[in-house]
Amino acid sequence: MSLHQLLPLAAFLLNVSLLGIALLRNSRSRLNRLFAYFVAGFALWNLGVFLLRRAPDEPSAFGAEIIVHIGIIALPAFYYHFVLIFLDSTVERRKSLLAAYGIAAGFMAINVMGSGLFMKGVKMTTWGWAPVPGVLYNVFILSFYTFFVMGLVHLGRAYGRTVSSFRRNRAMLILIGTSLTIGAGFIDIIRFALAKSLPALDKVYPPGIPANMICALLLGMAIIRYRMFDVSVAVKKYSMYALAGGLITGVLAVITRVTERAFDLEAKSALWIVIPLGLIVTVLMGPLGQAIEDRVQRLMFSRRRGSHDTLLALSTRMGRILDMDALMHALVHGVLRGVPLTHCALLLETEEGRSFAVAMEEAAIEQAPTARPVRGNSRVVEWLRQSEDVLVKDELKVNPRLVDFFEGAENELEELHASLILALKTENKMIGILLLGEKLSGEIFDNRELQVLRLLANQAAISLENARLYEELGESNAQLLQASRLKSQFLAGVSHELRTPLNSIIGFSKVLLNRLDGDLNERQDAYVRSVHTSSQHLLQLINSILDISSIEAGRLALDQADFELAELIDECVEVSLPLTRGKPIKLDKDVAFDLPHVSGDRAKIRQVLLNLLSNAVKFTPGGRVSVGVRLDGDTIHVSVSDTGVGIRKDDLGRLFEPFERLENPVSRDVGGTGLGLAISKKFVELHGGRMWAESRENAGSTFHFTLPCVPVAVH
Ligand code: ADP
Fold first, then answer.
1. Is the pLDDT of residue 285 over 60?
2. Phi, psi (rounded to 5 degrees) for 617
3. Distance from residue 612's CA to the centre of ligand 1 (Å)
4. 548-568 burial by CB neighbour count: b if 16+ within 10 A, else e?
5. What's the gap in Å between 583 CA and the centre of ligand 1?
6. 605 in Cβ contact with 568 (< 8 Å)
7. Of 347, 376, 511, 503, whose CA–CA distance to 436 is shortest?
């Protein structure tokens, strides 16, 4: 068989595979189906030519010509229809489309009938059999070209308007492919149509078939590279199975041969071959077959692994970012560079939840479109809310589910200028949208990439939500701090105002008790005494509140001076002695001799010591209370210990909190405000020291505080 005869067979096979791909991907899509019909026309044309070139006599050549023309006659209508669907203008151009189908049906009928009006017969030429055109043949040629040219014009116009390089490339391939075939077909036809007047034309090689092959290859490229039908994965799987199938067949062939020879089975029962072969096939279908498939798959997808790794790394990195701006930048920039893309934008739901506003965008090319906000009730958002999938814009025409959903709202999708749209969801709430441009390489996103991107979108949603919560927490913390400052200022103000009238109550009740203005009877004495002690208690409380609030408001100043600590301790022990009256308590002190002078606010340290001593006595029903002082490096360490009721382990943590009074066997009998320790601790800290407590329930407590010998500067 010569190359001339083989070419149409090769073109036929190419067209059949295109047909298979289109139907394999999605036979329910109108675009896919029309495309399949169109290439089926080509396939028939090629098959007819193959048969024609091998036809031994005139009748079989005539039969082959009829097959050739069945294919050719169907082409313009299918092509025109395909282009109209591709461009979404079937409705506008309904009439011309019907005309195309009507004309095709008419010519098809007279062709199949073998009418002489269409084709008078066949004759032998330099390159094989050729038809002898009938009266209507030229009319057919005219209509054939009219619809092709119309389709091409529409496609060409749309090509000029398309912004997306992705779609331009795809339209370009279809345009070149079909023009080439039609052009070459034209030469084919002219050759015999004008053969009478220009006999030399007969010598020209009919270029229709090779051009048809190129067309098939270009269409294939449009499908695979530019995702006409999202078949890349299908094609890869297809070739993978072909490879695995080829391997298995090869192995089987060898095994059959070897077994036949070795056991001389050629003449024996076929079972001898069938049973072991069945076994082998079973083995290959199992893990071994799987291993082969895996290997092939890895080989085919390895090129893309780079971007997978980058995107997965980005996903992990995002989990660690808490700053909103940094996070949004990491996401948009990371995706843009990771894939890499023409542009990428992040839209976040606005506070009132009615739309998604552009929060961050970045582009890798100059003419990239700028993102615009999306309405919360738009069809795109609706789809993203109810679907878990990535929205692939190019699938809009191909996927029937999308076609139905977006009917009448195709523009919405177009205006987003994105080839992939991902929803960012946390627990079913959609917080944002990620818009991805096209790949800079012009390639399509394969399924695994979509999977990784979906994963990334999930992680991004969680991270963004965390960052938002963190930001909110910061804000409410600041508000709380401000509120707390205001509270302290208020308390300081009020306490101060309360002290003035309280001082006169205390003063005048004292005057009454001293009977400076006359005698009191017993009852009056008791009342006035109660007024006096209660108001003194109140004054103490107010003073404590004033202290704590001025500390918290940052307004407490220390009255700094050098003083002798040992002497202060003597004084405090002395003052506290009356507290032990009526209790079997021994109050003592253990003070080191070599104590240096302390620089600080003597009155405040006195308050601290008195508070600790009074607590120790208060919470010790009987036993010992002692004060110890020693020098520890350049800090002075003071401790007040008792053998009293002690403090529960769980309570130790909140001991120094203001207004905390702990539950213990004597707490009900003794008064207190729960402010003493909080104030003491603050005083010590203002001096640059520390305060802490050690205690065991029923085994007494020790309160420690330190003061630096070289005092810190006091503000
Ligand atoms: P107040 O003594 O006025 O209640 P403090 O702040 O001085 O307030 O003490 C807070 C709480 O700590 C007390 O109510 C008491 O329950 C516990 N506490 C303080 N000192 C001792 C101590 N030495 N032994 C046992 N409990 C103590």
1. no
2. -70, -45
3. 9
4. bbbbbbeebebeeeeeebeeb
5. 18
6. yes
7. 347
Q: Cα–Cα–Cα angle for 215, 217, 219, nearest 5°?
A: 70
Quote the tokens at residue 677.
Answer: 């320790």
Could you give the residue ranges of the DSSP H alpha helices within 228-270?
Answer: 232-263
User: How many other CB atoms are found less than 10 A from the CB of residue 621?
Assistant: 14
Q: Tell me the C-alpha distance between 10 and 2, whole Å.
A: 12
- What local confidence, expressed as pLDDT, does residue 429 receive? 86
- Residues in the chain, how many? 715
The answer to whether the beta carbons of residues 631 and 601 sit under 8 Å apart is: no
pLDDT of residue 450: 83
User: What is the residue with the minimal CA distance to atom 16 of ligand 1?
Assistant: 662
Angle between helices 208-224 and 165-193 (to 10 degrees): 170
Mutation test of ligand 1: which of 545, 548, 677 has the most ligand atoms closer than 8 Å to its C-beta? 677
pLDDT at 243 over 90: no
- Token pair for 82: 């395909």
Structure tokens at 176: 């070149």
Give pLDDT, residue 96.
Answer: 92
The Å distance, Cα 672 to ligand 1 centre, comes to: 8
> What pLDDT was estimated at residue 234?
43
Q: Helix, strand, coil proportions of the chain in percent (round to 5)?
A: 60, 15, 25
| Residue 491 tokens, joined | 């308390």
Residues framing ligand 1 (Cβ under 6 A): 611, 615-616, 619, 642, 644-647, 655, 660-662, 664, 667, 672-678, 701
User: Residues 655, 693: contact at Cβ < 8 Å?
Assistant: yes
Q: Give the mean pLDDT of the chain.
A: 81
Distance of alpha carbon 503 from alpha carbon 511, whole angstroms: 12
Kindly give the distance from the C-alpha atom of residue 528 to the centroid of ligand 1, in angstroms, as a whole number: 30
> Which fold would CATH assign to domain 3-225?
Rhopdopsin 7-helix transmembrane proteins (1.20.1070)
- What residue ranges do the domains of the chain occupy? 3-225, 238-297, 304-472, 561-708
DSSP single-letter state for residue 439 = B
Question: CATH says 561-708 is which class?
Answer: alpha beta
Q: CATH topology for 304-472? A: Beta-Lactamase (3.30.450)
